[in-house]
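G., the chain you wanted modeled:
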Amino acid sequence: MFYHDNDLQYPVEVEEPDPRFAKMLQEAIGGVEGEMRVCLQYLFQSWGVPDEHEEYRKLLLETATEEIGHIEMLATAVTKNLEGAPTQLKDEMTDDPVINATMSGMMPRQYLSSGLKAMPVDANGNPFNASYVVASGNLAADLYANVMAESTGRLLATRLYEMTDDPGMKDMLAYLIARDTMHQNQFLKAVQSLGDPEDPHDHLPIPDSFPDAKELEEYNYSFLSTMREKADYEAPWTEGMSVDGEGEFSLLHELDLEGGERSVPKANPETHNEVKEKGED
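Predicted structure as tokens:
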């Protein structure tokens, strides 16, 4: 259950409206790095967390709800950058909205479909794609996915920060960047809290519930080099103890693998994939 408050989570002010920047802000709403992605990701993850892990469900729900507020902030910023466009620009758009919107760097749909409002799309106008959402059902895997989502979201926010000189937009983005800092740290801390408190990597590899004896253990800690010429080299992932503490890293050359013969059976005649033989009707 969600409850709405009329106040924005953080003030959104635009001193110099910029329709071009409004288009860029759309990426932070409906893009792969955007707030719609993380909001839905955390919601769907939380709804699948069992009761025994209630503290993680609360973590995900709290953050997902916060992200709804971020979407509202960004949508407000887009509207203020569009609605506050110079009078001359809006007058010209009235005469020929499609051409003028295109020439000014806006998305025509922001005028034609939303009436100068934010939309659930990215900076190229592509509708939000729910395939961006990661909710595997495995708590450890999902928490790592959340760290990645917050990292790329923070990258996007810092790039948007560098694209504007508007003090209000910089202030809003500075807030969002700060929240991404916290979210990365909270999810990393949550990862560390999984399993044995004496072993911060007790949950690895994911899923750790799969029996070790059922995987091919001669390959599970060998880094595979696919170079055409064999060459030994030392790296943190080719020697020493593995991160999960259950094996020793080693270097394996693809050239040393026995491999297997590639064999593809004849196509089913009903698929009509085969080329007709000479003499066939």
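The chain has a mean pLDDT of 89.

Shout if anything looks off.
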